[in-house]
Amino acid sequence: MDHLRRFETIRDYNTFNNNETRHPLVNVVDVSKASPRRASNMYFGFYTVFLKEVNCGDLRYGRHTYDYQEGTLVFIAPGQVIGGYDTSELYQPKGTALIFHADLLHGTSLGRHMHEYSFFGYQSNEALHLSERERKIVLECFAKIEYELEHGVDQHSKRLIVSNLELFLNYCVRFYDRQFITREHVHQGILERFEALLNRYFQTNKPQTLGLPSVAYCASELNLSAKYFGDLIKKETGQSAQAYIQAKVIDRAKDKIFDPDKTVSEIAYELGFKYPQHFSRLFKQRVGHSPLEYRSLN
């Protein structure tokens, strides 16, 4: 398990799985063609999407177990490392991998918007669990890309392949939105837990020692990745997790401002601001008045 396999190119991963390299920057890989192997850590220098076809039974998700028989999509961004199961036994891979290099996207609409597909930053326990109908749509998208690869490269190939990649990713956005709703019981109380976390944070001296609570800090405390947590909060509240934190900070500031014995600088430091002018700027943006104006008006 300590050994790290590095896949820098599409060809590297094709060779590892006994698949033909039909295009240097993209492929739909049938991993069942691979030889039996032992689990290892793997580094990917390109975007990778696994459609797991194995019957893996119950999966751990938070403190609960759920049965996913239909299939699971796992998204890996370039530069990420994933680990296999902690076992020395040989296993036969099964499923499909969609792999594409960032170089394929240069000069395309997808290339300009690729950062918006935040699920490439999710952890493996935040994977997309597909219904049977959704799985069929995913396989249809894969089939269209595979058709272009089998057709041979011509002047239309890149546009059609990238268009189908974008279609697939947009379907995944829809499916994740569905998962946030239908799996609400998994994340039940996430907003309440977020609120309680912020309340506890400001009741301690953490703002003075750690500064303002970050989205990454809150996500870690709630055992979620920052991107998945941010998307959950956006879906639940309509605003970003950062905006939600800022609103909580301003609410705390409003209470403190009515203490005439405290200066604006003291309030700023108590809330975790390194520089008082940053606090004053945020307060005016959110409230419409500077802290001193707000104090005098009220």
From TrEMBL:
- Reading the lineage from the top rank, the first entry is Bacteria
What the entry lists under SUPFAM superfamilies is as follows: Homeodomain-like
List the InterPro entries hit by this protein, alphabetically.
Homeodomain-like_sf, HTH_AraC, Tscrpt_reg_AraC-type_HTH
Could you list this entry's UniProt keywords, alphabetically sorted: DNA-binding, Transcription, Transcription regulation
Q: Where would I find the HTH araC/xylS-type domain in this sequence? A: 192-297
What's the short name of a Pfam family annotated to this entry? Answer: HTH_18
One GO MF term on file is: sequence-specific DNA binding
Please state what the protein is called: Helix-turn-helix domain-containing protein
